[in-house]
Amino acid sequence: MIYIQYFLLAAATVFFSVKLASYVDMLDRKTDLSGAFIGGVMLAAVTSLPELFTSMTAVFVLDKPSLVQGNVMGSNIFNLSILGVLMIFAHKKFMKAKVAKSNSSSLLFGILMYGCAIAALNLNSDINIMGFHVDIFTIALIVIYAISVKMMNDDDSGDSDENADIALSVQQIVLRFVVFAILLVGASIILTQVSDQLTEELQLGSTVGGAIFLGVATSLPELSASVSLVRMNNFNASIGNIVGSCVFNFMILCFADILYTGSGIYMYDREAIIFAGCGIVASLITYFGLKYKKSSLFVYLAGVGIVIMYVVSIILSI
User: So which domain of life are we looking at (predicted)?
Assistant: First the structure.
């Protein structure tokens, strides 16, 4: 029965997230915001809501910070593997796509954020700010994310010239967005509890369980949205969604660290280090895949390399 609940909740998460992504896309075409910002910040934040709320539930309901670490690190490398698969099967179209420069910059910022997360997992560097015990690397993560958002907001290099009429008004779009966001939050909270039960039943560590069950299930929105965007030949928004989600996911660690009243959100964990290390390598491969995307063969090989790193991360962590 637990397996049926898991898959039903995962399906509901995908449906709600795809609906939310469509409303964000409508807002994109009704505003003057840059495409890089829409895909890398707004859409990325929407499709990362499951990671955010499942992680908050893991911390404040289940009191398992290691589940958060596995969720964030596992979701990030799974997100990149989605892009890797798209690069493999659409490498010829990918090489011709118009992609914002800030997507590559975000990957580099993501690598810096991986470094901060690894340092936080290995060092006890808490400081007291207005009564809150916060890790110094949490502050570094917030600063890096703010810089990356600013760059995406100023980047219109990948914007499309296409514009379509939207029947709904901005108010109608926002109302529907809020409704589906609430549904997504509810499904995400229940999904965390079911994933924890499934992890215990299969006798997996909480970090590995978070990376496999939570990491995959909560990344399904990125998968669904990205595949749909590629089918519409909107590679810029697809890439921005995936890369932006990876960067935004690090903010989940920050939220948890600031609000958690326990001994601290960061703790050394072998599996988390493995996922982070493989995530850095996958990010570098993705970066060079974007930089040299004029070569169809290079894009294909980069996609294969990204998927291999995801498989390696799972094998080494079990």
Answer: Bacteria
